Amino acid sequence: MAEAKKTSKKKAEKEAELIVEAAPVAETEVTENVEAVVTPEDDATQAAEAAAVEEQTTVEEKRGTAATAKAGKRSAKAVKESEEHLAKEARKASGEVAEAKPKPVKPARSRLERRGKNFRKAAEQLEKGKTYPLAEAVALATRTSTTKFDATVELHVRLGVDPRQADQNILDNLVLPAGTGKSIRVAVFDDEKAAGADVSGVDMLTKQLDKGEINFDVLVATPTQMPKLGKYARLLGPRGLMPNPKSGTVTTDIAKAVSEAKAGRVEYRVDSTGIIHLGVGKVSFSAEQLLSNVNAVITSLKVNKPSSIKGVYFKTIHLSTTMGPSITVDLASTN
Questions:
Q1: Tens digits of residue pLDDT in 118-137
Q2: If we measure between CA atoms, which residue out of 248, 273, 272 comes closest to residue 259?
Q3: Closest to 320 (Cα-Cα) out of 119, 113, 117
């Protein structure tokens, strides 16, 4: 009986050992079976997902291509520029942008070099920094004219005056001995006809001025008719055509005013910088004619010298032609 119990006990222990040893094997076999079953399904699923992702990517690329417009923000050019801009900003942020190289600066050309070919050729006849006697300057002015038309000879006199002072605001008129070389159209604002006038009559001139028409170079009026011209001051004033007693265009002697205007009466006034600019003839004039006109202007300026001027009165005198070079006149030759 005791032996039977021992035998059953040993048998039970052996079975327990067999169960313990068999358990990992069974578990391993189950795991292997599960892996063998699950792995193919997972691979198929992953393959299906990869195909779906690829298909979706292709569709999105096609949609993106279709969404690219010919112009505007979605155009290929705009997209490319946007990408380049973003890349540039990224490089700037990272400090990879190289410093811009300074552009070479060309030396500035002189004033003479910027002039036209004809002007430079004419300027070669003049010596830089030299002052010429008046007679020689007049002759040079006619030789250095660069225009094909009959150019005007201009006189530019810089005076030592202050135009802001009432007594130094020089204004006068004179008749040039050789004339101006221009055909002057004279209008008379008066009912009486004047010999030599191109246009006359109050009613006729009023109708023209109401329309803004100006068909004359000099306007002469009598003192009694001047109030009627007051409303045309804005039209005539800026053009220097408003009659003025100082210029001899407001007078009772209409015939004399017309003859002087036709003969070459000119008016000069100092500008805000103290310079007087005045045409004294044409290039077609002879040297003697031009010289007589220039001397007449200089004499008139000397007569009108303000008594308050204590220093130098004539600072510089220049002669030039229309679009021609400037010639400096020796002040000693004008005395």
A1: 888 888 888 888 999 999 99
A2: 248
A3: 119
